[in-house]
Amino acid sequence: MMVQAFLDRISDKSARIGVIGLGYVGLPLALACLRAGFRVTGYDIDAAKIEALTAERSYLPHIPVDGLGAQIAAGDFLPTDRIADLGTADAVLICVPTPLTPERDPDLRYVRDTAAALAPVLNPGALVVLESTTYPGTTDEVLRPILEETGRTVGTDLFLAFAPEREDPGNAHYSIGRIPKVVGGVDEASGKLAVALYNAVLEKVVPVSSAATAEAVKITENVFRAVNIALVNELKVIYGAMDIDVWEVIEAASTKPFGYMPFYPGPGLGGHCIPIDPFYLAWKARSVGQSTRFIELAGEINRAMPDYVIDRLREAVDRQSGKGLNGADILLIGMAYKKNVADQRESPALTILEKLRAAGAKAGFHDPWIPEILPSREFGALAGCKSETLTAERLAAADAVLIVTDHDDVEYGLIAEHARLVVDTRNAMRARGLEGTHIVAA
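Structure (tokenized):
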């Protein structure tokens, strides 16, 4: 009876959807549910986010919230920092961080804490869906026991599934509604309800046989990217030693219409998924007696790229001025982990900036998307550092400009004209037709 009642509420759009975590994943998801005609409760522990949404102000530059005030006034959207407000939700979608511990093991405290806080207020017959990327087995082995501590049973009066987020912040072509959604339940009924929910919100749903399979799908996607980026990063180093331009190689190889997919080198991996997820799989693999040698080697290569970039920068500065990095004025372009997003999480730019300062360089940055470096566990000393204004005078004063993140809204022509030395890790200059003896690749 609970299954059919849920399906009926999804069908007639009378269901209320709860979203926990209103960040890069949760906020677009909540807005997609609203656009689909559902009433939504958006929960986040950060009161500043709730205040911003209530004032119809977006804290994510690529996610507009125009018109949200009217939906709040009508009762269609409730932004809240009170977990009890999720007690009226028919489905709750969990979008919380899944970082690593300092020992690079899975850190599931946010998932556990969320489940423990949510369990006592859940509606009978509610569907809970975890969207946070994690290792296969998390939904069933970690989330399920916590939710069932209240005396409910998954598959009877509580339903549980995993549907991994596939967000690509800054990608205007693939918004959340257009990205196929993989969905797997911990049992048949849970899978059926989750598929029905997402079918009512998104263009395409891809059902799989279990939550563990859905978890494996997501982690496979990110391991695939990490390994291939490591490969092309290693090729960059090899071809660089041969005085071969890896970017030209990739461009030519990309003309092959089959059997090849281009990946691009860079200064290292960043973001909330690709640098982290391989460690989740490696940890889980060890628990079942398996090794992940290939994946771990890829991680070593990618983690070595900031040092490779700094070495190339040091060589270029030494050739240009004979002074090395100690005392050199270095201006980084970009602090975000990828272009056109305001997200510094796991950004290789943070590592590079910290290491340059440790080497004695006077290092600052310009980033139109990140006005100030936010506090973080690993880079606490950089917190509060502010983006510098990009001017002809600032560029001319720098011993070198290091392009780490290739945002579209950077004045690359100004850089080419006024910088004495440009070290480009992203092919940003040549891609815009800007070349010269003072522009080198790294």
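The domain at 2-208 is CATH 3.40.50.720 (Rossmann fold). The mean pLDDT is 94.
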